[in-house]
Amino acid sequence: MKQSEMLIPTLRENPADAEIKSHQLLVRAGYIRQTASGIYSFLPLGKKVLKKVEEIVREEMDKAGAHEMLMPALQPSELWKESGRWDTFGPELMRLNDRHQREFALGATHEEVITSLIRDDINTYKKLPLVLYQIQTKFRDEKRPRFGLLRGREFMMKDAYSFHDSYESLDETYERIYNAYSNIFTRLGLNFRAVIADSGAMGGKDTHEFMVLSEVGEDTIAYSDESDYAANIEMAPVVTEYEKSDEPLKELEKVATPDQKTMAEVAEFLNHPLEKGLKSLMFKVDDRLVLVVTRGDHEVNDVKLKNLYQASVVELASEEETRKVMGAGFGSLGPIHVPDEVDVVADHAVKYAVNVSCGANEDGYHFLNVNPGRDFEVTQYADLRFIQEGDPSPDGRGTIQFARGIEVGHVFKLGTVYSESMKASFLDQNGKSNPMIMGCYGIGVSRTLAALVEQYHDENGITWPTHVAPFHVHLLALNVNKEEQKNLAESIYETLKKEGVDVLYDDRKERAGVKFADSDLIGIPLRITVGKRAGEGYVELKQRKSGEQTEVHVSELLTRVNKWLKQ
């Protein structure tokens, strides 16, 4: 392809709103352009990379026994109401009405659509298991689109769904797709981890996220420094064994703490370490008010709270709601004298607290020398905090360390969450009707493209791996006004095309410096430069990632190129 005939609008400066490297470089190198906040057009280079990522995904999904299909992006609300998610999915679901005021959603995911399709056409165990997938645009109304392709309102996704007559069959397919995902991200050349995760709005249980390691990742991975254990920080259980101090219990004392709102402020004011205070936060768990108590140096894990109550929605209560029930606002809450309509649940560490402080449920006051069991009762103790670096690894090997990660894939064991609510059933060998058992498997294709750039770039631009690069070779004619350079470049271009080498030919009438800068920015793996020694038949061969370069006679060029591409 001749560069003069392609739309590759490169930029010298970073866009003002681009905070991370993938966003900056994909825009600067002419791969994407923003149409609206969180909505991007893929220009020719971007589309070529996207297609290559999709091809790798397709190959591995097909090997795993999945079959590609395509479902509509526009989905009737009736299906979402059947599953119960029309009201619970949240504001991220883009909703609209047609001219007849019928309600629709733009597909954020396709569990409802695929379940309705299968229930109408599959009714016997003889046609199970079945695994179907699609690669399609998805829509989510992100509150704060950011980081370019990493958090958008419109994005490309591969989503797959499996249907089974037994949990053993689901386990087998889950393992097969899990391995397919590992193959996909390995083939893409990504440094990733598969981590234990939460199913969130998807429902179900037993789920893993595939995380690309990156400092710009919005998720934190908790991993062992001595084993292969890894989990999203939301899901990592705390197995710390606490010891209770043998100091004598002191008399409860109420003290004024004016204008002290945070745990750090209270601890400094009372002159004790954070762990000698109790933190109390009011949550709305579905329709129930729950006061969650942790040690002052720990953070409440709302995912663990949600799983404890098997709730649909968990959110912090507003200060107005809290004050109405507790008689005090944030910063002065505590577990003593809590109204009967409020559950009090506490993290395991609280049980071992001795002579600690807590809010007095009166603005500007705290209790000192608080002791659980004597001064307050807890409805239930549970693991309710986030794991911390240095905590014991849940698998008993090593201690926990943290890393940042970009989620690019997620696999779920959905079970019968959707099949029961939407009445998708099959007849077993005895003629008995049973709900289908389901699995769900997603890959963020456009997110994966951005994650690749986060791991493959340097100070000059992108350094694509060969198998996903938009072209294999970037051919530069430094001065197309000189006949010997133009003629040699044209000859090399035609030869490479005939040999099936994917080549971009920079035939533009630009300065050499501009061509070199654009080539580095675009990041094609191998560069051939036709310059001053064209008359002698010599060109320069340079590897983009390593920077290694050498002069090669045109008679040896094809052999060298093919050898490098095979590597």
Automatic annotation (TrEMBL):
Organism of origin: Melghiribacillus thermohalophilus
Family, as annotated: Belongs to the class-II aminoacyl-tRNA synthetase family. ProS type 1 subfamily.
Biological function: Catalyzes the attachment of proline to tRNA(Pro) in a two-step reaction: proline is first activated by ATP to form Pro-AMP and then transferred to the acceptor end of tRNA(Pro). As ProRS can inadvertently accommodate and process non-cognate amino acids such as alanine and cysteine, to avoid such errors it has two additional distinct editing activities against alanine. One activity is designated as 'pretransfer' editing and involves the tRNA(Pro)-independent hydrolysis of activated Ala-AMP.
Annotated catalysed reactions: tRNA(Pro) + L-proline + ATP = L-prolyl-tRNA(Pro) + AMP + diphosphate
Broad class of the protein's primary localization: cytoplasm
GO CC field: cytosol
InterPro entries in the record: aa-tRNA-synt_IIb, aa-tRNA-synth_II, aa-tRNA-synth_II/BPL/LPL, Anticodon-bd, Anticodon-bd_dom_sf, Pro-tRNA-ligase_IIa, Pro-tRNA-synth_IIa_bac-type, Pro-tRNA-Synthase_IIa_type1
Top-level taxon of the source organism: Bacteria
Boundaries of every Aminoacyl-transfer RNA synthetases class-II family profile domain copy: 33-465
Alphabetically ordered keywords of this record: Aminoacyl-tRNA synthetase, ATP-binding, Cytoplasm, Ligase, Nucleotide-binding, Protein biosynthesis
Alphabetized Gene3D superfamilies for the sequence: Anticodon-binding domain, Bira Bifunctional Protein, Domain 2, YbaK/aminoacyl-tRNA synthetase-associated domain
GO MF annotations in UniProt: aminoacyl-tRNA deacylase activity; ATP binding; catalytic activity, acting on a protein; proline-tRNA ligase activity; transferase activity
GO annotation terms (biological process): prolyl-tRNA aminoacylation
Protein name from the UniProt record: Proline--tRNA ligase
Quaternary assembly: Homodimer.
Recorded domain comment: Consists of three domains: the N-terminal catalytic domain, the editing domain and the C-terminal anticodon-binding domain.
UniProt-annotated location(s): Cytoplasm
